[in-house]
């Protein structure tokens, strides 16, 4: 008789959220004037690892069939890489280019908010990120200093929300139950609270099981 052991797979999302938090603090401090303009290269080097870490989270999320989380983390990874390269190299027109980049990211984030609502941790981080992307984008295009400070303050708020989400998910993985409220709803809540029968529902229609995508 063959014995089958099911081993739980830890969620990669705490790593992704902690990475968002740390990188957001660094960029926010630059916007708030805590760091001087000459420190931009150092900030870029501190942010650069966020690209690799969030890309790793994206790959692991794809392996766990969490397409929404994988897409978001992969896109975040690309944004940190773009920011680090532009700021670190002091590229000509960097502020204006990053302004347009942030506004484009704002449009992407607004669309993703509509599909991430059941995943409240991701949804909350996106919701607080939207005004920051808007402020950073407009500040980059107009040069308005007050908008830069506002974007920095919003960056600290993003860091707080992301840290809470990461800590809550880590406690949940450690204790196999929800400790701090995350607010899951719909399929996300069912996936955590439901039994094995719920998890296997519609399995035959999942990618990798059906013949073609």
Percent strand: under 5%
Helical content class: over 70%
Which structural class do you get from the secondary structure elements? mainly alpha
Major sheet size, sense and barrel closure: none
Shape: globular
Low-pLDDT ranges: 1-8
Number of helices: 8
Mean pLDDT: 83
Give the CA-CA distance, first to last residue.
36 Å
Order of helices and strands: HHHHHHHH
- The total beta strand count reads 0
Q: Tell me the radius of gyration.
A: 19 Å
Explain this structure to me?
The protein is 73% helix and 0% strand. With 213 residues, the protein is mostly helical. The protein has eight helices and no strands. The N terminus is likely disordered. Helix 1 packs antiparallel against helix 2.
Q: How would you summarize this macromolecular structure in one to three sentences?
A:
With 213 residues, the protein is mainly α. It has 8 helices and no strands.
Provide key terms for this protein:
single chain; 213 residues; mainly alpha; globular; disordered N terminus
Topology:
Blueprint: H1 13-32, H2 40-63, H3 67-89, H4 94-116, H5 120-142, H6 145-175, H7 186-193, H8 196-199
């Amino acid at each position: 008789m063959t014995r089958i052991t099911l081993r739980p797979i830890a969620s990669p999302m705490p790593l992704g959220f902690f990475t968002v938090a740390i990188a957001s603090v660094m960029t926010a401090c630059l916007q708030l004037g805590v760091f001087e303009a000459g420190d931009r290269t150092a900030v870029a080097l501190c942010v650069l690892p966020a690209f690799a870490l969030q890309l790793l989270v994206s790959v692991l999320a794809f392996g766990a069939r969490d397409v929404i989380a994988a897409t978001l983390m992969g896109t975040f990874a690309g944004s940190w890489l773009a920011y680090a390269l532009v700021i670190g190299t002091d590229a000509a027109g960097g502020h204006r280019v990053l302004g347009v980049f942030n506004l484009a990211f704002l449009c992407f984030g607004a669309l993703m908010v509509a599909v991430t609502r059941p995943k409240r941790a991701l949804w909350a981080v996106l919701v607080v990120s939207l005004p920051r992307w808007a402020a950073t984008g407009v500040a980059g295009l107009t040069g308005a200093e007050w908008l830069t400070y506002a974007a920095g303050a919003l960056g600290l708020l993003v860091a707080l929300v992301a840290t809470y989400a990461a800590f809550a998910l880590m406690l949940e993985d450690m204790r196999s139950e929800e400790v701090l409220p995350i607010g899951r709803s719909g399929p996300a809540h069912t996936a955590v609270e439901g039994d094995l029968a719920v998890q296997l529902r519609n399995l035959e229609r999942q990618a990798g099981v059906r013949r073609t995508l």
